[in-house]
Amino acid sequence: MSTRLATGGRLLNRGAAYSFSFNGASFRGYEGDTLASALLANDQLLMGRSFKYHRPRGPVASGAEEPNALVGLGEGATFEPNQRATTTELFDGLKARSQNHWPSLDFDVGVVNNSLSRFLPAGFYYKTFIAPRPFWKHLYEPIIRHSAGLGAAPKDLDEDRYEHFYAFCDVLVIGGGIAGLTAALAAGEAGARVILMEQTSHWGGRTPVDGGTIGGVAAQAHIDALVSKLEALPNVTMRLRCMGSGVYDHGYALGYERLTDHAPRNIGPRHRLWRIRAARIVTATGAIERPLAFAGNDVPGVMLASALRDYVVNYAVSPGDRVVVVTNNDDAYRTALAVKAAGLTVPAIIDARPNGGGVLAAEAEAAGISVRKGMGIAKVEGGKRVTGAAICAQAGEGAVLETIPCDAIAMSGGWSPVVHLWSHCGGKLLWDDATAMFRPDPARPPLGADGQGYVLTAGSASGPMGLAEVLADAVEVGAQAVTGAGFTAAAGDVLPVDIAAESALEPVWMMPQGAEYKLRAKAWLDFQNDVKVSDVQLAAREGYESVEHTKRYTTLGMATDQGKLSNINGLAVLSQALNAPIPQVGTTTFRPPYTPISFGAIAGAARGDVFQPLRRTPIHEWLDSHGADWEPVGQWRRPFCFPKAGESRHAAVDREVKATRASLGLLDASTLGKILVKGPDAGRFMDMLYTNMMSTLKPGRCRYGLMCNENGFLMDDGVVVRLDEDTFLCHTTTGGAEHIHAHMEEWLQTEWWDWKVYTANVTEQYAQIAVVGPKARKLLEKLGGQGVSGEDFPFMTMKDLTLGGIAVRAFRISFSGELSYEIAVPASKGLALWEAIWDAGQEFGITPYGTEALHVLRAEKGFIMIGDETDGTVIPQDLGLHWAISKKKEDYIGKRAQARSFMDNPNRWSLVGLETVDGSVLPEGALAVAEGDNANGQRNTQGRVTSTYHSPTLGRGIAMGLVLHGPDRMGEVLDFADGKGGFIKAKIVDQVFFDKDGDKQNV
Questions:
Q1: CATH superfamily of the domain spanning 162-287+417-491
Q2: CA angle 676, 761, 685 (to 5 degrees)
Q3: Quick check: 533 pLDDT over 70?
Q4: What would the DSSP string read from start to end of 274-325?
Q5: What gap in Å lies between CA 377 and CA 372, rounded to an integer?
Q6: Which of the listed residues 79, 268, 445, 475 has the most CB atoms within 10 Å of its CB?
Q7: 297, 188 in Cβ contact below 8 A?
Q8: Can you give the residue ranges of every domain in the chain?
Q9: Where are the beta strands (DSSP E) in 542-600?
Q10: What string of DSSP letters covers 100-112?
Q11: Residue whose C-alpha is closest to residue 951's, from 916, 1000, 997
């Protein structure tokens, strides 16, 4: 029977007792407990059911690798499923419920699947749910939907807050065990900025549990000294309960910090996602003990030897009073000694090695513990808890020699370095046959842009398992990290290590020979997904020889622990079935996150009213106070129009268009993208970005440009200004600034990384105001603008001016067809300039106009709008923009794609103007019908409307559209579907409806 031990529990504060509930029953624990240790102390060994067969399961581990003890925490708005009992810190009032059973944990009808296991082998769903097809909807689908998933999804809105935190450092150390502390101290004392994170609530890792002395003092005392030194360094940031979630390219890493999970009544965010850039990253993530594969190794009470040792030493609890230890390496002997020292019984140590262990084995025998060499476990007795261990000879046929009564079994199949973070960013692994493990290959690290490795591993994560070797490795790696980050490593010698009964943890056999190769009962590899040894063997027989294929066919390693316990044993079984060495079989791909992280942490503050940042220009408040009717444009808010009292939107737009054409309009154009491109190779880069030639543009001149993606489709347009020989300013659409900047950076970083070009998105650094209309020049002259005549300041040029005492940069460009100036000024002066223009423009009847008037003005002139005339399938040639495609350049992004037969097809729809016969407005997106029906019985089409408006200037509806052979069919009348079952007749005309020769803009 499991009981709380009378003494011990180094992490417990017995002065603080907590009450908590599990499945509605009340229990008590202590501060420092995990939910798993507290349940074990209350003799609640059964904590969940497996996914496939609903087998009873208790904890098999004590940390983040736990696959079995998953619970739902909290209720209502605080409910969260699939939380590990082994990492959930106990707090007063905690409420937890077990998962994946009905009607109760003790009695689950789903366990019937266990009796049907012979009919549910690996891949059974591929073979079963295929035919007969009529069964899908009414039989297969309901069963699959009901069975899918683990745990219940939350139904209420999460009440907690989450945040993102951005940090920069020279050295990031992930893991706060003895190796991580040592490496961090070496870096910190050298003056480097260090961030040290540890996923648990305490420093030191496994070393305090395993015991021994370092430099003549106890391991815990040495760790306390390291922590004190680190805390005294102002350049070192230390975070507990912060897990290294993932490592990515160029020294980018994510940390996942749990701030109030253990104290939910505290004020503040619950989780924090750290976004870190580091010059060097050290992963001191330790190692994970492997289970052994024997019949019944999933019965509650069977645990990893290291986990049972943790529960005894850290929490003064054991899953049973009589513990049998089964192992193939020396480390498990420490568990036997710890159990014995705690006053519990160790009936036997079952060692698969014929010659047994070394110094630790001798110490165990001296303590009176029976050691059975060359033996293994044939079967575990018991159902919902262990009652005995049937042992057999490893070299035999698995015949039971003896059954040893016991309450718990501690198993150890050796150790595997935690290589996940190393592998996330491309670090390669090396198979070490002597210790039967994959470890990082230092000759093939993840490489940074400088060609140097930016990720290092320290301690057990590198492969060494003995404490002396771990410390030596940590000191060396700490020095390497510091040097790589540009600092001089601190001098220091490795402290002498004196671990009581220290010995090597080898040889380790991947799978003890003999009986375990001839298993006649269920031996489990993946505890959560119920993958057996026989499932992997079946996959091999059925042709799944790739480890990745086997993983998906059997679901091995696809549980929430992501194969942390099952992968290596699964590889061993597969390699034996394929008669191939383990390194030839290889490993599956490790992907972030290392352990699951909350959706709240991923979203951060982006929820509710701040789901997206609301972007406002410097002139926003003025526009709002003058009646702006707002519309969203990307993340910005822009005025749709400025309706006066009693005025409809339509009337307001008409008024704004007429006023701008007749006198003077004012537009806030600050939202338009502004990207700076600078460097000796800037002209070369611009030629590749745009379809037309930009490198020949003279400083102070402007040129309209088109930008295509690599598939040849038009993605953005805008005016490019050459500021000087090495500097260009690219104007983009409002919604395209971030996307286009990312597009530029992608090509610079992946294809043209050696070009000397720098880009910066300066959209929000400048306000930009469009002064539009016949009176625009007079307004600038009234504000003091000098040299703004048509001769001094011609169309498509740039000029620095002073307007109203404010230094500005003015561009003589037009999107309306009118005399127009776009005036750029630092954002801090944007409102002042706007107000100066507004005041000066009163004598000219100045009128602010919004985005809809902007659209009408440009449509009257036949100017295209990205997003209206384009939909991701349109190329410049479709829009009649051949003149904007250079015939001199050898290449630009998308050029070769546009030469493909489909792109060069004469039957592609082309841009034309459209006028309804009756003067009405065509519906947006209306299709032009053609003769006959298609293969689906639908009417054939020959065009579509891309933009459509009522033109107050012309007094009728105007539209642009893409039509089959459109430019060759001028004057032809087409039928457009009105969306109501009828048709509207419209004539194909020139797309320029107003001032075709451009006299108004060139004045």
A1: FAD/NAD(P)-binding domain (3.50.50.60)
A2: 45
A3: yes
A4: EEEEEEEEEE---EEEPP---BTTTSTTEEEHHHHHHHHHHHSB-S-SBEEE
A5: 11
A6: 475
A7: no
A8: 15-157, 162-287+417-491, 291-413, 523-585, 673-764, 859-883+895-989
A9: none
A10: S-SB-SSSBGGGH
A11: 916
> Measuring CA to CA, how many Å separate 720 from each of 11, 689, 695?
65, 11, 11
Q: Taking the CB of residue 847, how many other CB atoms lie within 10 A of it?
A: 21
Name the phi and psi angles at 174, rounded to 5: -105, 115
Radius of gyration of the chain (CA): 36
CB-based contact 833:668 (threshold 8 Å): no
Considering the four listed CATH numbers 3.30.1330.40, 3.30.70.20, 3.40.50.20, 3.10.20.440, the one that applies to the domain covering 15-157 is 3.10.20.440
Question: Which are the contacts of 252, defined by CB distance < 8 A and separation ≥ 6?
Answer: 275, 276, 277
Whole-angstrom distance, CA of residue 585 vs CA of residue 385: 36
- Residue pair 472/479 in contact by the 8 Å Cβ criterion: no
Other CB atoms within 10 Å distance of the CB of residue 339: 26
Please name every residue paired with 325 in a beta bridge, in sequence order, or none if there are none: 349, 410
Distance (Å, whole) CA 33 – CA 727: 62
The H or E element spanning position 808 is strand 806-811
CA–CA separation, 227 and 219 (whole Å): 12
Report the top-level CATH class of 859-883+895-989.
mainly beta
Whole-angstrom CA distances from 838 to 184, 677, 833, 946 are 60, 33, 9, 34
472 residue type, one letter:
A
Token pair 């099952």: residue = 566
**Which CATH class, in words, describes the domain spanning 523-585?**
mainly alpha
How do residues 755-792 score in pLDDT, each as one tens digit? 999 999 999 999 999 999 999 999 999 999 999 999 99
Does pLDDT of 571 surpass 90? no
**Lookup: tokens for 513:** 């020979």
Angstrom distance (rounded) from CA 397 to CA 373: 16
> Does position 196 have pLDDT exceeding 90, yes or no?
yes
Q: How far is CA 292 from CA 296, 375, 411, 415, in A?
A: 11, 13, 6, 11
Q: Give tens-digit pLDDT for 100-148.
A: 888 989 888 877 766 666 666 777 766 666 667 777 667 777 777 776 7
Assigned token pair, 534:
């026989």
Can you tell me the distance from the alpha carbon of 389 to that of 631, in angstroms, rounded to the nearest whole number?
72
Per-residue pLDDT at 125: 67
Closest Cα partner for 788 from 971, 967, 1003, 961?
A: 1003
Burial profile 957-983: b = 16 or more Cβ within 10 angstroms, e = fewer:
bbbbbbbbbbeebeeeebbbbeeeeee
Reading the block at residue 618, the tokens are: 């410097």
Q: Which two tokens mark 2?
A: 């499991």
3-class DSSP assignment, residue 34: strand
Phi, psi at residue 846, to the nearest 5°? -55, 140
* Distance, CA of 653 to chain centre: 44
Distance of alpha carbon 168 from alpha carbon 146, whole angstroms: 46
Query: Does the domain formed by 673-764 have CATH 2.60.120.10?
Result: no
Distances (CA, A) of 86 to 292, 484, 712: 20, 37, 54
Query: Which one-letter amino acid corresponds to residue 407?
Result: D
- Taking the C-alpha atoms of residue 332 and residue 289, their distance in angstroms, rounded to an integer, is 10
Lookup result for tokens 């592609």: 908
Which CATH number is 291-413's, of 3.40.50.150, 3.30.160.250, 3.40.350.10, 3.50.50.60? Answer: 3.50.50.60
CA neighbours within 13 Å on the CB side: how many for 284? 37
3-state secondary structure 211-238: CCEECCEEHHHHHHHHHHHHHCCCCEEE
